[in-house]
Design a protein that fits this description.
It is elongated, with a radius of gyration of 41 Å. By secondary structure, it is mostly helical. The chain has a 3-stranded antiparallel beta sheet. It comes from Letharia columbiana.
């Protein structure tokens, strides 16, 4: 959006209205790029701080009025001086450039593969990313027990070694998320209340 086109007569009228003469109750502070005018006004003739007000462009529908953040700051008193037209034009350019840079950054992010996507088939040969939590070596040994290919090895093992191996299998099958046993107060039960001796 560019500066509103104004005739020389309009520019002279605006300069005249910006003069803060003692008999005036309101004077012009400035305009925005949409043609809205911003005014100072005195609510009474008594010496008080001048208030600030917006007079919208009559050619724009009331629901379509857009006020820039710098004019909002001026209206609320957080900005002491009204923004100039070159400053408003620079702010519009900055917002346009920011939108273009954000769209380019979004396009770059969309082009990169996401971590949440499923892995490609090339990684499955290594056993990476296929969603299995267990190792393949222990699973192969258990499958050998189920199918019977490990029967000969079982017969050759001594009784002590069999006990150790079965203990290892039991440790693997225990649920790590199950409630742990062996807390100091786990078996404690409250007893009936028995009052102590009264001291007199």
């Amino acid at each position: 959006m560019s500066a509103p086109s104004s005739s020389p007569l309009t520019a002279i009228w605006r300069k005249w209205k910006t003069l803060e003469l003692p008999w005036r109750r309101r004077w012009l502070a400035g305009t925005d790029l949409n043609g809205n005018t911003f005014w100072y006004f005195k609510p009474s003739l008594a010496f008080t701080r001048p208030r600030r007000i917006l007079q919208n462009n009559p050619k724009i529908a009331y629901s379509d009025i857009e006020i820039s953040p710098s004019w909002h700051q001026w209206l609320r008193g957080t900005r002491p001086t009204p923004p100039s037209l070159p400053e408003q034009i620079q702010d519009v350019r900055r917002q346009r450039d920011l939108k273009q840079l954000a769209a380019a950054a979004d396009a770059r992010w969309a082009a990169k593969p996401s971590v949440l996507d499923k892995p490609r088939r090339g990684n499955l040969e290594l056993g990476v990313g296929d969603g299995e939590a267990e190792g393949t070596v222990g699973r192969r040994w258990e499958e050998g027990q189920k199918t019977g290919s490990g029967e000969r090895v079982e017969k050759e093992l001594s009784e002590g070694e069999k006990g150790e191996r079965s203990g290892q299998v039991k440790k693997q099958k225990e649920n790590p998320w199950a409630r742990q046993r062996g807390n100091p107060g786990e078996g404690w039960q409250p007893e009936a209340w028995a009052p102590g001796p009264v001291k007199r």
